[in-house]
C-alpha cells in the first residue's frame, strides 16, 4: 500500500481558493485511483471528488461540482484538489484516500479505498 500525506489546508475567506495536495510514497501510485473526502465537526464523512488511476476520469459530489477540480500527476506521485469559490460549509478536515484500480474505474465510497492520509484542516470564514 502507499502512504498518503495531505497538505495545503488553511484559513480562507468565503469566495477564496485553496489547493490541497496529496503526496504518495511508493512506485505503483500510477495504479491508484484517489479520492478526497471531508468531515466537518459533528457530521458524517462525505465524498468530495475522485480520479481514476490514469487521471482520465473524475467524479464530484454535487455540492462541489463546478467549484472544485481534482487532478493527478503520476510523475510527481501527487493528486491535487483545487478549490475555488469556497463557502463556509466547505469547512472540514479533508483527507485523501487511494485504492488500486483498473480500467478507469472511479470509486466514490469510502469503503472502496484502503489507504488513507491523516487529513488537513480547511476553514472558510464568512
Give the tags.
single chain; 126 residues; mainly beta; 7-stranded mixed beta sheet; 4-stranded antiparallel beta sheet; 11 strands; 0% helix; globular
Quick structural overview:
By secondary structure, the chain is mainly beta. The chain is built from no helices and 11 strands. The relative contact order is 0.32.
Number of helices: 0
Q: Output the radius of gyration.
A: 13 Å
Query: How many strands in all?
Result: 11
Distance between the termini: 39 Å
The overall average pLDDT, rounded, is 95
Characterize the main sheet: 7 strands, mixed
Estimated structural class: mainly beta
The share of residues in extended strands comes to over 45%
Unreliable residue runs: none
The coarse overall form would be globular
One letter per element, helices H and strands E, the order comes to EEEEEEEEEEE
Description of the molecule:
The structure is a single chain. By secondary structure, the protein is an all-beta fold. It is built from no helices and eleven strands. Strands 2, 4, 5, 6, 9, 10 and 11 form a seven-stranded mixed beta sheet that branches. The radius of gyration is 13 Å and the shape is globular.
Amino acid at each position: 500500500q502507499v502512504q498518503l500525506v495531505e497538505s495545503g489546508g488553511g484559513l480562507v475567506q468565503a469566495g477564496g481558493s485553496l489547493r490541497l495536495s496529496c503526496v504518495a510514497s511508493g512506485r505503483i501510485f500510477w495504479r491508484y485511483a484517489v479520492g478526497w473526502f471531508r468531515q466537518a465537526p459533528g457530521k458524517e464523512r462525505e465524498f468530495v471528488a475522485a480520479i481514476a488511476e490514469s487521471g482520465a476520469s473524475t467524479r464530484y459530489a454535487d455540492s462541489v461540482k463546478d467549484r472544485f477540480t481534482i487532478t493527478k500527476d503520476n510523475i510527481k506521485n501527487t493528486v491535487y484538489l483545487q478549490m475555488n469559490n469556497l463557502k463556509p460549509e466547505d469547512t472540514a478536515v479533508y483527507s485523501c484516500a487511494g485504492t488500486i484500480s483498473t480500467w478507469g474505474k472511479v470509486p466514490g465510497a469510502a469503503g472502496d479505498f484502503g489507504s488513507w492520509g491523516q487529513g488537513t484542516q480547511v476553514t472558510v470564514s464568512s
